[in-house]
């Protein structure tokens, strides 16, 4: 054993701490004692040419030897030590961005160098999660103005990589979220790629919803492609639908999303910076943003939509992006399924043109694809709507989608959940309101998105009539326990569907 006081051998703890690097040491180990480390101390590790700042968790029993440090999966992946590796441990220097962080917490405006320092420290794990939570909170609401939003967007792009697809338009589409089942992206990508345009789509996994686009796509094809693999798919098929966390085009934003997840809030400025930084990094030139507006959607009012649209336009203009905005109905779910496999089923039904395909999902996808086609200058004389309809009706979009799936690693059919039960209406009348948030929560309690087949099948829409005892929706679950958990919550939520007579 080496005599250096601050060296320990490294072990793999096999503990998933999501994206947060954690190191485990025994409280009586010589490094803890000599360096004065305690629980939640930030620790700088050096192993060979690599270094990493991690959060310390202190072990009090004898499962960890005094001469060893165990690394969480995130820390092990980031440090990549070999077998029998050793590392040195010491206190890190204070984060360079600490003054900027404090300034923002106390309500001061930040400049682009401040945001760049913050994003560099975020990416290099120099800021603890509690500090990042303070930053996210200090930016929440409307505490990022237009100039700060532009600066934050540029900083996020600067600390990641940026793809270059060469000459010609590169299209993209994004939905700000908050609407269950609104899985238009795979359909839009298939239509746009079938029309001969490039659309390298990077998508997120669920943050607070029952499914993100990447979760739904992963039911049908691999999505965890690296940048080189993504490029090969796009060069071969014109489009892709991959998980943005694997290609890491705006990696600082991925860290902030990890912190925002348990807080369940963000700001307009952070939302704009998150969305547009990824579009810029992906090499997009023409971007369409879908903004569902409704009382239980993410954007809840016309005034809120107008504020967000103004910020999106200003930031896109500063970045040289050609931006289209489409305000859509966010009062109720889209499609029948809420959850990865159920949404994938709906996507395939629309692409295949089956008689039971959800008409609202099909219509919304066609409208969005048409608007994106019309956004590109020099397109053929006939309108985007006709082009989108023709590509969908002819089967060209389906063929392109299956080809993209094969290029990403192979297509597979969505699988149904083994446990299904209906929730019945307790009163009759017309569907007056649908609470998107509560409906999404039931789907999550059923196991979505961790269990891909879990979720909700909901076929009622505003204005539909229902009688007492008729099903409002079905709950799908992988296990009986998850099914009962979701049903127990659903039984107490009488306002998920407000049923009555029109005044």
Automatic annotation (TrEMBL):
The keyword Glycosyltransferase applies. Pfam families: Glycos_trans_3N, Glycos_transf_3, PYNP_C. Its EC number is 2.4.2.4. Transmembrane segments: none annotated. InterPro entries: Glycosyl_Trfase_fam3, Glycosyl_Trfase_fam3_N_dom, Glycosyl_Trfase_fam3_N_dom_sf, Nuc_phospho_transferase, PYNP-like_C_sf, PYNP_C, Pyrmidine_PPase_CS, Thym_Pase_Put. SUPFAM superfamilies: Nucleoside phosphorylase/phosphoribosyltransferase catalytic domain, Nucleoside phosphorylase/phosphoribosyltransferase N-terminal domain, Pyrimidine nucleoside phosphorylase C-terminal domain. Residues 430-497 form the Pyrimidine nucleoside phosphorylase C-terminal domain. It catalyses: thymidine + phosphate = 2-deoxy-alpha-D-ribose 1-phosphate + thymine. The keyword Transferase applies. Keywords: Glycosyltransferase, Transferase. It comes from the Bacteria. Belongs to the thymidine/pyrimidine-nucleoside phosphorylase family. Type 2 subfamily. This is Putative thymidine phosphorylase. It comes from Lysobacter niastensis.
């Amino acid at each position: 054993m080496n005599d250096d006081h601050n060296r320990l051998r490294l072990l793999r703890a096999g503990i998933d701490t999501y994206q947060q690097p954690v190191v485990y040491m025994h409280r009586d180990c010589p490094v803890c004692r000599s360096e004065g480390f305690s629980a939640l101390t930030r620790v700088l590790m050096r192993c060979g040419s690599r270094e990493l700042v991690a959060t310390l968790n202190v072990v009090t029993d004898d499962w960890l030897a005094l001469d060893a440090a165990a690394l969480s999966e995130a820390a092990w992946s980031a440090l990549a030590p070999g077998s029998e590796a050793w590392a040195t441990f010491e206190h890190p220097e204070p984060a360079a961005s600490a003054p900027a962080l404090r300034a923002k917490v106390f309500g001061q405006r930040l400049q682009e160098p401040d945001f760049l320092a913050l994003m560099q420290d975020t990416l290099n794990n120099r800021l603890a999660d509690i500090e990042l939570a303070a930053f996210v909170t200090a930016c929440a609401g409307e505490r990022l103005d237009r100039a700060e939003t532009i600066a934050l967007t540029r900083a996020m792009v600067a600390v990641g990589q940026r793809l270059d697809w060469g000459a010609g338009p590169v299209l993209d589409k994004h939905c700000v979220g908050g609407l269950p089942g609104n899985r238009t992206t795979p359909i839009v990508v298939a239509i746009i790629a079938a029309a001969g345009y490039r659309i390298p789509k990077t998508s997120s996994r669920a943050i607070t919803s029952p499914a993100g686009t990447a979760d739904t796509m992963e039911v049908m094809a691999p999505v965890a492609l690296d940048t080189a693999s993504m490029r090969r798919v796009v060069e071969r098929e014109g489009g892709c639908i991959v998980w943005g966390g694997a290609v890491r085009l705006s990696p600082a934003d991925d860290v902030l999303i990890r912190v925002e997840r348990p807080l369940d809030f963000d700001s307009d400025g952070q939302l704009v910076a998150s969305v547009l930084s990824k579009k810029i990094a992906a090499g997009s030139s023409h971007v369409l943003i879908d903004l569902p507006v409704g009382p239980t959607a993410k954007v809840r009012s016309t005034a809120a939509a107008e504020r967000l649209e103004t910020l999106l336009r200003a930031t896109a203009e500063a970045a040289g992006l050609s931006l289209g905005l489409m305000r859509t109905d966010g009062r109720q779910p889209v499609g029948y399924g809420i959850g990865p496999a159920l949404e994938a089923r709906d996507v395939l039904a629309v692409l295949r043109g089956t008689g039971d395909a959800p008409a609202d999902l099909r219509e919304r996808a066609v409208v969005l694809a048409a608007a994106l086609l019309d956004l590109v200058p020099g397109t053929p004389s006939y309108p985007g709507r006709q082009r989108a309809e023709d590509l969908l009706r002819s089967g060209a979009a389906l063929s392109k989608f299956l080809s993209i799936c094969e290029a990403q690693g192979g297509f597979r059919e969505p699988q149904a959940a083994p446990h299904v039960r209906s929730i019945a209406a307790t009163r009759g009348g017309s569907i007056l309101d649908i609470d998107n948030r509560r409906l999404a929560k039931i789907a999550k309690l059923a196991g979505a998105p961790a269990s891909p087949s879990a979720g909700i099948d909901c076929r009622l829409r505003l204005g539909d009539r229902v009688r007492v005892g008729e099903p409002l929706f079905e709950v799908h679950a992988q296990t009986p326990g998850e099914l009962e958990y979701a049903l127990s919550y659903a039984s107490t939520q009488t306002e998920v569907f407000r049923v009555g007579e029109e005044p």
